[in-house]
Design a protein that fits this description.
This protein has 32 residues and is mainly α. It has one domain (1-32). Helices cover 84% and strands 0% of the residues. It is built from 1 helix and no strands. The chain has one helix at 2-28. It is rod-shaped. The N and C termini lie far apart (39 Å).
């Protein structure tokens, strides 16, 4: 269970920056 929890944390850490970057690109450029 602990390993699964760590894996989930890693997935969140990996995907959250991508989401933020995509949102930033939409905000800054508008042409995605």
């Amino acid at each position: 269970a602990a390993v699964a929890r760590q894996a989930a944390k890693r997935v969140v850490l990996r995907f959250t920056p991508t989401r933020i970057v995509s949102w930033d690109h939409r905000k800054l450029g508008g042409a995605y």
